[in-house]
What we know:
The protein is α/β, with parallel strands linked by helices. It has ten helices and 18 strands.
Amino acid sequence: MTQPPTCDLAVIGAGFAGLACARRAVERGLSVLVLDRKREPGERIHTTGILVKEAWEEWAAPDELVRKVSRVRVHTPSHRHVELNREDYFFLATDTAGLLRHLVEETCRAGAEIRFGQKYTGAANGGTRLDLDGVGVSCRFLVGADGARSMVAESMGLDRNERLLKGVEWEFEPLDSVGDCLHCFIDPESAPGYIGWVVPGVGITQVGLAVHRNARADMQKLIARIDPLFGLSGRPVVGRRGGVIPIGGLLRNFYGDRVLLIGDAAGMVSPLTAGGIHNAYRYGRVAGDAIADHLEAGGPHPGRVVRRAYPKHRWKRAARWSYDRLPVARALEAGLLTRGLFRKLAGKVFFDRFV
Length: 355
């Protein structure tokens, strides 16, 4: 029987983590195949697409695909707010579909093969390789970068994310009232478990919320509550996106024999801010390097390397616990958290530094 062609690395998922891993691995000389079930890059966006400064430093985006945001305004349910900024820091709203197309082009130029419209259904042990079901290709190593509900994790017997937020976002035409601020709303009635937000995006205004997995994501309620600030009621919705966000931290069993999960699939998301693109870029690259070292030089299992490199996030987990259990919004409204104290805490959350 003729054996199928073998590549060094197969990556399932052409998102931020999968592309970062594939690009780095191919730069290290590995043959890389990326599979994604979507028909084209940027289809069915599941993220707000905000880049923190550190993510942009990891993998810069073209100017036409981003919009710089330098200020954060945190609102209470009664629309009192605290404004934060740091002179040497910024966020970037993105044309997320356009950014993913750009990353795919760069990864292909580096030498990776990317196949869209190819669903992963499983892999069989072929001795020194894994045979990908229905693909006609084998690989020496497999990476699952296929999102919070990873099929790679399920098929290979690895852990799966259980603590999840549910995120929904609507897109509106650009609004002058939003300004150049990232607006965050601490409101347990309209956003139980996390926050609502308004982002001045690239050619659009992004309005969204994330809630506990079992709560209802009621966008109409959020829009009604923030309507006095932005006048959104009655405006047409020009786009929608959404998905689940893992907030339980790095999974205990996120790797096994010849397989590794990265990105959302591995729980590589901040347990406090629910941001994941920076981690996707950084630890995707770490994984690409570690896989090359493992396959070409007999280095340690890439999962061990990634686990050692990944931060513990102890203070963020503690802050997440407090946010879930303490009446933060009521404390803000009652003045129990003074503006000075809240400004310092919020600065640590958004800028990783007390401001």
